């Protein structure tokens, strides 16, 4: 199979030297890429942490050229790379395990003189005038301001673009992380999310349990709990089976 994997975290730039990001390091995607390559598949991995893949062969010395590692940093970087790979790569399977930014920067603001935020009432106030904010721009926003307010707006869900408008026709594997949910709540939310994205397979876990296990589904109409150490093997074997079934029905 020809497999695309996304891995790692994305950065949402505030200015040229500051970003908002998350805590994830791309190890899950790296393990999937490593497992798929070891089983003889052709793998392209887009990752913000290429250092997690140093044990894979250098493409220049890989006689079969079955592995390609493409680094990225920002949300826009990853979105552009995925779109390009889907349009040109001819992939049978896509594992979208990257921890993509949910929100992007939409400006940095400082209160004008006399304007202040009343934490008790949750309102902006200014003595004698309407509250006002000044936008701060530039290559590096000044650190002299006593207070800055960072506006973020919801980012597009990249997983929801694989099918439409990017036209991906292969097997799509989605990943979902939640916090503080019961197993039942997690599986219910995961299955609804999988359906919304048109994904064939979902990997779901909670932050509290992510080091130990994850749920994979739907498999014969249910979600199975898989130990973390077995996750990459189980995923690759599952998509191999799904791909064979799909090819036989074509």
From TrEMBL:
Record InterPro entries: CoaB-like_sf, DNA/pantothenate-metab_flavo_C
One GO term of the biological process aspect: coenzyme A biosynthetic process
Secretion signal span: none
All residue ranges annotated as the DNA/pantothenate metabolism flavoprotein C-terminal domain in the record: 2-105
Pfam families attached to this UniProt entry: DFP
SUPFAM superfamilies: CoaB-like
A GO MF label: catalytic activity
Protein name: Phosphopantothenoylcysteine synthetase
């Amino acid at each position: 199979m020809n497999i695309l994997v996304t891995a790692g975290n994305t950065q949402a730039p505030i200015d040229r030297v500051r970003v908002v990001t998350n805590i994830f390091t791309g190890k899950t995607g790296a393990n999937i890429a490593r497992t798929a390559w070891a089983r003889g598949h052709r793998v392209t991995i887009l990752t913000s942490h290429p250092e997690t893949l140093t044990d894979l062969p250098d493409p220049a010395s890989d006689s079969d050229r079955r592995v390609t590692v493409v680094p990225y940093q920002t949300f826009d970087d990853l979105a552009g790379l995925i779109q390009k790979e889907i349009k040109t790569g001819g992939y049978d399977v896509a594992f979208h395990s990257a921890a993509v930014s949910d929100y992007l920067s939409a400006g940095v603001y400082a209160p004008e003189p006399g304007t202040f935020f009343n934490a008790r009432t949750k309102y902006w106030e200014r003595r004698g005038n309407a509250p006002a904010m000044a936008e701060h721009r530039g290559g590096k926003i000044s650190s002299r301001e006593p207070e800055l307010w960072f506006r973020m707006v919801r980012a597009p869900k990249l997983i929801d673009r694989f099918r439409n408008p990017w036209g991906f026709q292969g097997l799509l594997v989605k990943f979902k992380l939640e916090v503080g949910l019961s197993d039942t709540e997690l599986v219910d939310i995961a299955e609804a999310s999988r359906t919304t994205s048109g994904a064939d397979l979902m990997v779901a876990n909670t932050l509290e349990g992510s080091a130990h296990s994850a749920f994979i589904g739907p498999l014969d109409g249910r979600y199975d709990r898989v130990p973390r150490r077995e996750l990459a093997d189980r995923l690759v074997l599952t998509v191999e089976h799904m791909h064979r079934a799909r090819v036989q029905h074509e």
